[in-house]
Structure formats: C-alpha cells, structure tokens
Recover the amino acids of this structure.
C-alpha cells in the first residue's frame, strides 16, 4: 500500500476530529466541521480507514425510533491520533516556514 499523502481535505478532517480526539464522529458532522464536501468526505474517511488512521463502526440503533438513518462512527486509532497530530504540526511548520502565515 502506498503511503498516505496528507492532502488539504485530510488535514481538514484531522483538525475537525482533533476537536474531540477520543470521540466518535460521523460523516455529516465531519463534513460540516471540516468544510469538506459531503461527497468527498466518504472517500477521505475510507482512505484513512484503509491506512489504519481511523476505525469505524455502525451504531446499534433502531432508525425508526431514532428518527434518522443509522450512522457509521469514526474514531482515531492510537497510532492514527499520533499521525494526525504530527501531520498537522508538519503542515503548520511548512506553512509558517514558507512565509505564508506572515503574508
């Protein structure tokens, strides 16, 4: 498997998930919080799961009782949390060193 390249969308999802690093997040929430298009968020989450950054599980709820569809929740793995924090720190450093933050 090729290494995961940290794209803008991936970094935005990391930042959204790191607002509650131990929490469970669902796609619509992540799309809203990260400002990544809902059509793109599923591809991003699938890539993160394939690379072991996040795991997912479907909630155990009756959709008719909940009044909404069943949700798939995503959460960081231990190594994934470390990788997300490191990737965001690297991106911040690259952005600052490049002089863009001071423009």
């Amino acid at each position: 498997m090729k290494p995961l390249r940290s794209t803008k969308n991936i970094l935005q999802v990391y930042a959204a998930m790191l607002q509650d690093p131990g929490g469970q997040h669902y796609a619509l929430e992540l799309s809203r919080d990260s400002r990544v298009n809902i059509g793109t968020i599923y591809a991003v989450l699938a890539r993160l799961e394939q690379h072991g950054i996040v795991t997912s599980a479907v909630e155990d709820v009756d959709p008719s009782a909940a009044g909404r569809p069943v949700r798939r929740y995503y959460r960081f793995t231990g190594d994934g949390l470390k990788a997300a924090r490191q990737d965001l720190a690297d991106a911040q450093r690259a952005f600052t060193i490049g002089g863009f933050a001071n423009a």
